[in-house]
Amino acid sequence: DQQVKQNSPSLSVQEGRISILNCDYTNSMFDYFLWYKKYPAEGPTFLISISSIKDKNEDGRFTVFLNKSAKHLSLHIVPSQPGDSAVYFCAASATSGTYKYIFGTGTRLKVLA
Amino acid sequence: ETGVTQSPTHLIKTRGQQVTLRCSSQSGHNTVSWYQQALGQGPQFIFQYYREEENGRGNFPPRFSGLQFPNYSSELNVNALELDDSALYLCASSLDRGHEQFFGPGTRLTVL
Predict the structure, then answer these.
(1) pLDDT value at position A101?
(2) Chain B residue nearest residue A33, CA to CA
(3) Is the pLDDT of residue A100 over 90?
(4) Which of A2, A7, A75, B11 counts the most CB atoms within 10 A of its CB?
(5) Please, which residues have CB within 8 angstroms of residue A48's CB and are 6 or more apart in sequence?
(6) CB neighbours of A60 closer than 8 A, spacing ≥ 6?
(7) Distance CA B35, CA A71 (A)
(8) Cβ neighbours of B46 in A, within 8 Å
(9) Distance from C-alpha of B109 to C-alpha of B89, rounded to nearest angstrom
(10) pLDDT digits (tens, 9 = 90+) for B90-100
């Protein structure tokens, strides 16, 4: 049972435009969400996070939106740059107990120059 | 400040063998989590160690075991290797089980 789903395996966006990456989850106990970026031959790099007490968190070009009723979060990258081309993973955790993170399967973003 | 390092980078084993993977956490971090990432999948949580104690485990059989040392480095041991154990093994460190985890580059394990 995939508790965290990224239904788009890939996304192509023109440089300068907005990239929107989506993530859905099924477990209502999840209360903390993170986005990671992964380049080939490297480990994932933390990008941005959001707690369930918020519905938006912004850090520079990156904004994460959380819709708890729909169990949906999205990552917006504006403006997109060629260096943003990578695989993006969303991850969720229920902070009661262990900090066990459930990752989605990833979305490969390609930003075209 | 040194980042998370893992060794070896690549490893080839045969079915039934045992393997030990190593991870050095980022300076000052006392929590290490291990993940298995199969091809085309996201990382799957194996277990977490906090101050040398196991602090949670994912859905992996007991032949996956771990250890954390007083310097907070960690080992992942896998016994009786199976073909499906072929994957990228990632470790991530954090401070006090914090949310922001810093990942190493991973160890690519191939089981033949």
Answers:
(1) 87
(2) B99
(3) no
(4) A75
(5) A34, A35, A57, A59, A62, A63, A64, A75
(6) none
(7) 24
(8) none
(9) 7
(10) 999 999 888 88
Classify strands B87-94 and B74-78 as parallel, antiparallel or unpaired: unpaired
pLDDT band at A99 (very low <50, low <70, confident <90, very high): low
Average pLDDT over residues B48-72: 93
Q: Residue-wise over A58-96: b if at least 16 C-beta within 10 A, else e? A: eeeebbbbbeeeebebbbbbeebeeebbbbbbbbbbbee
* A44 upstream amide cis, omega within 30 of 0: no
Torsion of CA A113, A17, A45, A89, to 10 degrees: -110
Mean pLDDT of A11-36: 95
Q: How far is B5 from chain A (nearest CA, A)?
A: 10
Put simply, the answer to whether A49 touches B99 (Cβ < 8 Å) is yes
B48 phi/psi in degrees, rounded to 5:
-130, 140
Residue B43 and residue B91 in contact, taking contact as beta carbons nearer than 8 Å: no
Look at residues B41, B42, B20, B43 and name the one whose alpha carbon lies nearest to residue B33: B43
Residue partners of A95: CB distance under 8 A and separation at least 6:
A31, A32, B99
